[in-house]
């Protein structure tokens, strides 16, 4: 009879004692045999070997005897150990034998006999608690007795712990060691479901679901069964293990209200402080309105609580108001503008989505901040000029233009060509329903005007240059794949670009565009149309040659649709194929409202028939799934390869299961016969492999496993001796170097890890200077050669030097944002590691060439020495003076440091002078830290500046607004000279710091002065008085502008022609008249040129020469779509005469504008005649304006001349221009 190792162990009493925790369900108990002490065995918990020093130890008091007495020989020291346990409830059901009840005394007698202890019991009738007093000569036997008694008298319970799936491997331990230790210590039963049957988060499909969120990791139930106290002890041990693996946690704060999100975003620093030094990482997902916090558990909890409390506080304290702004202005309130507004006004602005037609803007903030919030929003909304350029033509043509512009990235190209201009097109969601499509241009007006001219030119070139043809979308991929070279030829030979719609859109419209940007592009619409027609005909021929598309519906019950789709769409993807020239719609997607038991297939005829058969076969197989999946195959492989095929954590076998949908089982347990054979001689042990599933998939899985076994049989390994100091260089950052070698040669390279216990150790028993290379023989040899070459390189370039610096110098060594340390790294090519600690000294390690690390050390020590010689001085300077000392952009502070002998490099200047920063508590402490000489000079200079500032006053002076520009000078030259001469600051109305300067001391004397004329002068009183005297002397006496005033109405539709692009206002200023307008028109002053295809082109003369045939004349009415309404102009003049002249001039301009009833667009073949039309210094065009009475504009970008005036005037001007533009022979004949 064959005996197991456990049987032999019990037979020969090698365990040292019977099982102290026998199975509670076992009705038979083995007789207790005396323990036979083993030679050389030491029990660290033995009371005899290591007597306890605890107070509970009862040691018999020995009498003092003489060392010369009879008792001086060897003696056995007798000790008695006692302990007690108290049980609140006693359950004898688990101690019964053969179903017969037992008594408490019988249980006590059984334990006393088994463990050689003495037990007394005492029961308190009031509390119903029983206390057991145990005594023994062995601490080990006492502990065993306590556990046995507790197990026999406590109720058996079951408890479940839901452990994160990632911690299960740690709970089990290497080869089950950790779990076995817990079972042995507590004698409880612990059940952990197998991976292929464990329900994770309620799923039992054999795979742990991958969570969408990091904080929703699936859990595995661990069931603990046994006596109640022991179950509690086992639970505590399991929870302690799980806690070591879940110290890091991720939490999310979701569904943050949209109006709260900007305020929360602005308080990031506050939330980081809530972590109290813990390691946390916060990520904001604005579209989802959620914040993800990950890191140390306790720090994450504090940060999340801070975020939630902030949200609750803001919800109760914020109020809002709504304003209406034109939709185009909303673009100026998005993106960075939101952060700028909240930083400036402490208010947030919420705008509707671009596809939302609403024009309502909501401003949120505290009640006291809403006024400044509204002001900030209005300033931002009006901060830039916005021009809406409507795309010409009917809406279908406009969509073609928009498609071309977006596909070629024209908005980005236009923005690059005109810096400062942002270009936006109609959102894609609105294109299908929009009546008019626009291009919005935002920026400074001169730049926007230049961009508008470029868009206008593009629209002119696109007229007649687009065409759409219909080709079934299923053929698009086939046509593009088979005819890639032809599409290139279309563009090179015929200047036509082809744009297929995105495949996901499933649209059949293909856009052809005659490329307007090509240098070979022809302006002739006939030639454009011919090229487009030729390419369109060729594309249609390609479509006919590709395939004839058909549709077919097959009836399949809805319950079988999942089988057709497959897990994650895998089956459906396999059916469709890589070309994706098929469309398969299932159920409701098929478009048949009468039933969902249908599948619609559309594609090439041959593919449709093939796919229909495959789908029906899949459905048939699904119906017989149990029969099909019952196929299995058994075979054997060498047991040594099982671990490699299964892979780490089952990765290898899981990959086969996922890809082929089969079940793979390995059985590598040794049979008794194999064990006996193994003792006799060394043999190759075999492992059995069983694969179950579909027959085709099973055969493929078997083939893959056997191929892998064949590769492993050729595998060899070699251990290389490489000093440990070079390992990190060979591995590379993130393992990139060693990974490259593994992929290049198909090998596995293993470096030793930390030699501590637990998971840090590698599976191979490697020494610190050993590297294992495993793989095919050829690959191992090649990888070894390259590794040894790399070692030689590392020996040359991986020298190491270690030294320490004072911890307080580390910040200076690093520099702002790591600038200083990065400069040292770049200049020396050394790798520098700083081990910053809490001690006074910080260790620094430099790696690299000998020359490089020496230079790096010298540079670091030089900085450290500078810090050691530094001093720190704190000055008290009122916060109101801080901005003045720092200066615009910090320039004032930089100049001060240079004046005092400090460094000129801004990075070295950082930290010399530190003012309280934004977000910190308001303080008047300014810290100076640096070289003693420089700090002392800075201290003296700052004290001098503060003394001057404390004597600073603000005085006002009345200077007419008309004189301000002259006093400021070009680029502020005059103003800067005045301020330098007098040592003051002069603020004119409208400057950024005007309102921050404060109220003038003499404000009472200037209360009747217009705010636009009030100039503020700040500085020492004497200096301010001197500056005011100079300002008054420099300002020319200006008569009051308010002596004459009048109001005149100007219709919006005449505004463009009345103002003459600002010429009228310049004329009025020469009369001494200032104009305030109540409003300006929003529509363009001149309607755009209509598309040529929609206009009947009239011949200019009867001669059919080429040039005349290409000349076009288009006439449109000027004011048909003009903006209605009037603008009130308020005229303010120095005297009545000037006012009357201005009124007469404006009325004349309005009358002239009324006559400008028509606009003519004269498009010439080329620009060759333009110099003759314009004449020397514009003489000819000026003469034509006088003779015809029309306004004539000759374009600088294209070949169009725009003529504006009455119908007769533009005809007269047109004829005159054509005579000038005609060839010389014709002019002589005329």
Automatic annotation (TrEMBL):
<feature type="region of interest" description="Disordered">
    <location>
        <begin position="984"/>
        <end position="1003"/>
    </location>
</feature>
<feature type="domain" description="K Homology">
    <location>
        <begin position="548"/>
        <end position="620"/>
    </location>
</feature>
<feature type="domain" description="K Homology">
    <location>
        <begin position="797"/>
        <end position="865"/>
    </location>
</feature>
<feature type="domain" description="K Homology">
    <location>
        <begin position="951"/>
        <end position="1036"/>
    </location>
</feature>
<dbReference type="InterPro" id="IPR036612">
    <property type="entry name" value="KH_dom_type_1_sf"/>
</dbReference>
<dbReference type="InterPro" id="IPR004088">
    <property type="entry name" value="KH_dom_type_1"/>
</dbReference>
<feature type="domain" description="K Homology">
    <location>
        <begin position="629"/>
        <end position="710"/>
    </location>
</feature>
<feature type="region of interest" description="Disordered">
    <location>
        <begin position="1"/>
        <end position="71"/>
    </location>
</feature>
<dbReference type="Pfam" id="PF00013">
    <property type="entry name" value="KH_1"/>
</dbReference>
<feature type="domain" description="K Homology">
    <location>
        <begin position="714"/>
        <end position="792"/>
    </location>
</feature>
<keyword id="KW-0677">Repeat</keyword>
<keyword id="KW-0694">RNA-binding</keyword>
<feature type="domain" description="K Homology">
    <location>
        <begin position="155"/>
        <end position="243"/>
    </location>
</feature>
<dbReference type="InterPro" id="IPR004087">
    <property type="entry name" value="KH_dom"/>
</dbReference>
<feature type="compositionally biased region" description="Polar residues">
    <location>
        <begin position="54"/>
        <end position="65"/>
    </location>
</feature>
<feature type="region of interest" description="Disordered">
    <location>
        <begin position="196"/>
        <end position="215"/>
    </location>
</feature>
<feature type="compositionally biased region" description="Polar residues">
    <location>
        <begin position="984"/>
        <end position="996"/>
    </location>
</feature>
<feature type="domain" description="K Homology">
    <location>
        <begin position="1153"/>
        <end position="1222"/>
    </location>
</feature>
<dbReference type="GO" id="GO:0003723">
    <property type="term" value="F:RNA binding"/>
</dbReference>
<feature type="domain" description="K Homology">
    <location>
        <begin position="869"/>
        <end position="947"/>
    </location>
</feature>
<protein>
    <recommendedName>
        <fullName>K Homology domain-containing protein</fullName>
    </recommendedName>
</protein>
